[in-house]
Specification:
Radius of gyration: 26 Å
Structural class: alpha/beta
Largest sheet: 6 strands, parallel
Number of strands: 11
Mean pLDDT: 96
Number of helices: 18
Strand order of the largest sheet: 3-2-1-4-5-6
């Protein structure tokens, strides 16, 4: 079946993660995505390797996250400080439906890539951007990564820690990938509107706004109460059936029985502690909350008696809502991940076959997830410029004087 965005050309002028991740999802949906990189060596994210990140025993020749967020795209290297390159890019954009970027607003203006200029030239164009703090206000040109605008500024870094522990760093790309999904959602909506009225539009996504939505439950309370957010204390949580517990073998499990009265008898039976069910300290949700510390101690003692592999069948047989706290290296072999095809293989011309993370959604009847790896730097430059109508002399003027990779 035809993919939803077949025939849609997207020009991506961006680096690092958020906007390129959106470009990869658009490619998964069938779009022809042209990635514009800067000379002489393209974006720095392309050149990272697993061993640089602490994976000492890995000699993989590519950067797996770069491949994940740039699969299926064509690559052209343009020096946008040169007039010829900027003119060539505008001609490439002439044949596009969508432009996406993470250039700061001042740089967009400098290169003629601000949405006002682009929409004046192409009234049907969809222009999308991700920035740290949004297009308006005093901080539109403030540089940001998701660690700053998404994680720290939003309150997530402070709230997502247990009582008494210092703030910790988020993992790479967490906020970027959330913002990428927002950008894709906005672009698809803008395309739908354009189908109706013929008008192009600008889609603005910020890391900060994305974080406010992700943290929406806590923020909604803060907007009303203006009080500090209560932290989770795993030693004395309000609901001990909604908590993490260590098991034998230095592993952990996560219980998520929000309706604690419903699951309490089942849990007592599963852990071979029937006497806890009739203990007056734990008779009902309010009693368990009042004696939370004592119940956590009881549950910790019980869970420490068995390994994770021994607990799996017992907790599943009892119909409890729980999950193992998987280590990242275990996730690729999770049976449900495999059954659903959430990861799949790419065939790279030099790195060989390897697995990558697929798109974050499925559409019935369609196979999503482009099977083409990220292009080598500048591999498609001449083809892209020919498609844009440049003749060979013009192509030489644009490409000939650039520093070599």
């Amino acid at each position: 079946m035809q993919l939803p965005l077949e025939g849609v050309r997207v020009v991506e002028v961006a680096t690092f993660v958020a906007v390129p991740a959106a470009g990869a999802m658009l490619a998964d949906l069938g779009a022809d995505v042209i990635k514009v990189e800067v000379p002489p060596r393209g974006e720095i994210y392309r050149r990272t390797r697993p061993r640089y990140m602490g994976y000492a025993d890995c000699d993989f020749s590519e950067h797996p996250p770069f491949q994940m967020d740039n699969r299926g795209k064509r690559s052209i290297m343009l020096d946008l400080t040169r007039l010829e390159a900027r003119d060539a890019l505008l001609r490439v954009i002439d044949g596009a439906e969508v432009v996406i970027t993470n250039l700061l607003p001042a740089r967009r203006q400098k290169y003629g890539l601000d949405h006002g200029s682009l929409l004046a030239r192409h009234p049907r164009l969809i222009v999308g951007a991700i920035s740290g703090y949004g297009l308006g206000g005093d901080e539109a040109d403030r540089p940001a990564f998701d660690y700053s605008a998404y994680w720290a500024r939003s309150g997530l870094m402070d709230t997502m820690r247990d009582e008494g522990l210092p703030p910790s760093l988020q993992r790479p790309g967490v906020g970027d990938h959330a913002a990428a999904m927002n950008l894709v959602c906005g672009i698809l909506s803008a395309l739908r509107l354009r189908d109706a009225d013929g008008r192009g539009r600008y889609v603005d996504v910020s890391l900060l706004q994305t974080a406010l939505h992700i943290a929406g439950n806590d923020l909604a309370n803060a907007l009303v109460t203006r009080e500090p957010t209560p932290r989770h204390d795993r030693a004395a949580p309000p609901n001990p059936l909604w908590n993490s517990y260590p098991v034998a073998g230095d592993r952990w499990i996560m219980l998520v029985m929000i309706e604690s009265d419903r699951y309490w008898p089942r849990l007592c039976k599963a852990i071979d502690r029937p006497e806890l069910e009739t203990d007056p300290r734990f008779a009902g949700g309010l009693a368990r909350a009042a004696h939370s510390g004592a119940l956590v101690t009881e549950l910790e003692t019980a869970f420490a008696e068995r390994t994770l592999d021994a607990w799996r069948p017992r907790l599943d047989a009892a119909g409890l809502i729980w999950a193992p706290v998987n280590r990242m290296e275990e996730v690729p072999d999770d049976p449900q991940v495999r059954a659903m095809g959430y990861v799949y293989e790419l065939d790279h011309p030099t790195a060989g076959r390897f697995e990558t993370v697929g798109p974050p959604f499925r559409i019935d009847g369609l196979t999503l997830g482009t099977r083409r790896p990220a292009s080598a730097l500048d591999a498609d430059a001449r083809a892209v410029l020919r498609d844009a109508g440049l003749d060979e002399l013009e192509i030489e003027r644009v490409l000939g004087d650039r520093p070599k990779p």
